[in-house]
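Reviewers asked in the last cycle whether our approach scales beyond single polypeptides. To address this, we selected a multi-component target totalling 959 residues and predicted its structure end to end. The input consisted of the following lines:
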Amino acid sequence: MEQLGKEEVKETSGSELRTVLRSLRRSRTATFGLIYVIALVIVAILAPIISPFDPYAQDLPNRLQPPSFPHILGLDEFGRDVLSRLIHGATISMQVGLEVVLLSLLIGVIVGAISGYYGGWADMVCMRVADIFLAFPSLVLAIGIMAVIGPSIFNVVLSLVVVSWPYYARVIRSQTITLKKMDFITAARAMGASGRRILRTHIIPNAIPPVIILATLGMGSAILAEAGLSFLGLGVNPPTPSWGIMVASGRDYILQAPHMVISSGLIITITVLAFNLLGDGLRDALDPRLRI
Amino acid sequence: MLVGVKNLIKHFPVTKGIVFKKTVATVRAVDDVSFEIEKGKTLGLVGESGSGKSTTGRLILRLLEPTAGTIKFDGLDITSLPENDLKDLRRRTGVVFQDPYSSLDPRKRVMDIISEPLLITNWGDRKRIAERVYELLDLVGLRREDSSKYPHQFSGGQRQRIAIARALALSPDLIVADEPVSALDVSVQAKIINLFSNIQKELQVAYLFISHDLSVVRHISDKVAVMYLGKIVEYGPANMMFDQPLHPYTKSLLTVIPVPNPKLMKSRKPTVLRGEIPSPINPPTGCRFHTRCPYALKQCSEEEPPFVQANPNHFVLCLFWKEIDEGVLIPHI
Amino acid sequence: MTLDSDKVLLEVRNLKTYIETSSGLVKAVDDVSFDVRKGEIVGLVGESGCGKTMAALSVMRLLPEPYGKIVGGSIYFDGQDLTKLSEGEMRAIRGSKISIIFQDPLTALNPIMKIGEQIVEAIVSHQQVDKNEARQRAINLLHSVGIPDGKVIANQYPFRISGGMRQRVMIAIALACDPTLLIADEPTTNLDVSIQAQILEVISDIRRKRGISVLLITHNLGLVAWLCDRVFVMYAGKIVEQAPTEALFTNPSHPYTELLLKSVPKLDSPKDKLATIEGEVPNLIMVPKGCRFHLRCPYARECCRAVEPDLVKVGIDHYARCLMQDSRYNVEWK
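The resulting structure, written as C-alpha cells, was:
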C-alpha cells in the first residue's frame, strides 16, 4: 500500500482533562470557582479535623458573643462556635449537593437515553412525566414533598432528586436524538451492535459532556435549595449545622448578633456563586471541543 | 452473484399528529429497482438528490426494511429477516460513509473504533484483535502509532482511511460506500479512490459505490446504475453506459459534468435540463423524468416505461430509447 | 470571447491577510497578486486551506475581525485602494459595485424574511428608489436569473424553495445594484450536477449580457475549464501558477497543477491509477521554508528547500512559481 509521507498530527494527544484545565485557567472567575470548590471539598472532608471546636458544644453564658479570639466568627444563640458550625455545614452542603446531582444524573441519563434512542410510547410517557415535574416551580414542589415526608437529610436529598432529574433527562434525550442521526451510530448498527451496546459505548459517553455543566450548576442549586428548605424548617433537623438553619436562627437575632446571619448568608452566596462561575467556565472550556 | 435485488420498494410514510398518527403522504424513496452485484466487482450507483441511492444502500445492508421486493445475499433471502438472523450479513458487509467527521465516534481511540466489529463478534482475544487492527492500519496506509489517537487528530482523508479499515475488519464480501470521497479535497480523493481499487484487487471485495460524481463512478465501477426519483433509468456495463448512453437523463448528465479539459468544454453542447428535481413525495405521472426530458412526448406523461434490455446487459427505462438512439426523435428546446 | 477592453477592473497586489488563532498566526494569504479585467471570468482555484476564500473576503473587506486582518498589499478597484477605505466607504461598494455569493444560500439568506423583501432591501440600501419600483425591479431580477414566476417566488420564505432556486435568488440579490464585479465563492458546490449546470448558465449569461466580471473561487478544475478565461492556482497562501485557461490545462508548468490535473478521474480515459500527491496540505501556521510545495514535490531538489521561487514567465500571460522554470537554476530536474 502506498505510504503517506510526513504528516503532522493535528494536536498533541494531551488528555482532555488537561485541555479543559488549561482553558479554565484563562478565566479568572472560572479559576476562582474551581479553587473555591476544591477548597470547599477539602474542608467538607476534613471537617472533624480542622474544625476548631465541637459544633454542638454549647456555652450558654457566652451566647451571641461577637467575633473575637478564639472564636473567630463568634458564638450563636446556644454559645456554639459559628466557624465550626459553618465548617461542618460545608460537609452537609457538599453531601447533599453531590448526592442530589449524582442521583438525578443517574436517573436522568437512563431515562433520557432510553427515551431518546428507542422513541415510541416509552419516550412519550417518560417525557410527559418529566413535563409534569417540570411544570412545578421546583422549590415549591420540594417544599410540598418535604411537608409530607418530614425533615431529614435523606428526605431532603430525595425531594431534590425528584425535582431535578427531569432537567437532566431532557438534555440527555435531545443529545441522544441528535447523536442517533450521526453516521458513527449507523455504522455501529451496520456491524451488528445491539441497542444496549450502542447506548452504553457510543451515545452516553457523547451525551454527557454538556450535562457536566448542568451538573456543576446543579450542585450550586442543590446547596441553595437545601439551605432554603432548612431555613424554612423543612430541611435538616436542628441541631445539625446546616447553613440554612444557621441563617434562620441568625435572623431572629439580626440586631443583637448580626455576625450569625452575615457569616452564614455570605457563605451560601459565595458558594453558589463559585459553582456558577465554575460551570460557566466549563461551558466555555468544553464548548468548541464538543464539535462532534 | 453476491447481491441480487428484485423489484425493491421502500416507501416512507409522512405522518401528522403526536399521539394518533395519520399518514398524510408517502415518500417513494425507492420505487421498484432491480440489479445485481457480482463477487469482487463494483456496481456504481449514481444519482442526484432524491434519487434514492442512499436509501438503496441502506436497504442492502438491512439498516432499513423494504416495503416490498426481495434482496438476496449470497443466495440467502434477507428481505424480511429479523435482526437476530442478520448476524451473518453484518459480518460479511461493511460500510463507509460520506462525512469523515461524523462517521467515527469522537470519544473513541482509533484502536477501539476499528476493533469494534471484532469485539461484537467475539472474533478473538485482545492480543489477536490488536494485531488485526495493526494489519488493517497498514492496509489502509496508516501507522501502528495511529491506533492510540483520537479522530480529531486526523485529516479528512485519514479519517476515511480509518473508516475503511473498520469496514474491512471482518474481511467482508461487500462494502457499501455512500459518497466516500465527496467530502474530500481533489488530491485526497485520488488517494482514497486508489485505495479502494487496490483493496478490491487484493482482497476481492465487492463494492456498492454510491456517488453523484459520474467521473469517479466511471473510474471505479464495472457496472453502473443511474437512478432518478427512486427508479433505475439506465443500467449496464460502465463502458457501454458512458460511451453510448441511451437514457435522456444519462445523456444530459454526461454533457454537463465539468471536465478539466477546456477545449472539450467549449466545444461540447451541454443539454441543460430545465426545471427542478421533483419531490419523491409527488413524483410525476407516467415516466418520472418526463417533466425535464428534452425528448418528452404526450405518451410519456401517461405511460410508465418498462425496464427494457436494449443491448446485452444494458437496460434502459424509456419508452422511446430506440427512436432517440437512432436519431428519429430529436430534442425540443 | 473578446474582452471589452484590456482594462483592469480589480487588481490585487501583494496582498497579505493573516489570521490570529489560538494555535498561532495563520498566514492565509501571503503575498498574493491577481487581477480581473473587464468582462472576464477569472478562476481562483485551490484545495481547502489554500487561502482562496480568505482572498475573496479580503477584497470585500469581510474578514472575521478582529482576528483576521489585511496586513499588507493593496486592492485596486475602480481607481481606489480598497484597503485604505473606511468601513462606511466600503459599505457603499459592497453589494452595489462588488457583490459576493456564497456556497450555502440557506445560511446566506435571512430565514425569516420573504425573498422579495430581501431583494428589495438590497436595492434600497444603495439606491434612492421607492418601494414599489424596487419591488418591480426585484421581480425583473428574478426573471433575469431564470425564475419565470417571480411574483410567486418573491412571496416565499427561503426554506420553501429548492437549493438551486436559492442560489438563483442569491445571484439576483447580488445583481440588484448592477455591480461590475461578482465574486462567487464555491457557488455550486452544494448543488446537484443538473442544477449546477443551470446556475453556471446563469453566471455565463450575466457575463455575456451585462458584461459583469466574475471572480470564481472553486476547487473544481472542471468548472474552471468550463467558465474561466484565466486561472490563478493557489497553494498554501500563494499563487503558484497563473495562465489563460487553455494554456494552464495543456501546459501546466507547476508540479502542483500538473499533479492536480492528473489526479482527477477523467470520463474519457481508461481506468488508470490516479496520480496522487504525497503528504498533506501544509499547516498555514508553520509553512515550509523555501518552496512551499517542495516537501510533496516529486521533482524537488536541494535548491527548492532553501529558496522561495518567484513567479517566472513561461508563456504569454503565463507564470509559474517554480525553480524548474527559472532559467537561473540550471539543475538536473528530471
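The radius of gyration of chain B is 21 Å. We regard this as preliminary and will revisit it once experimental data from Aim 1 are available.
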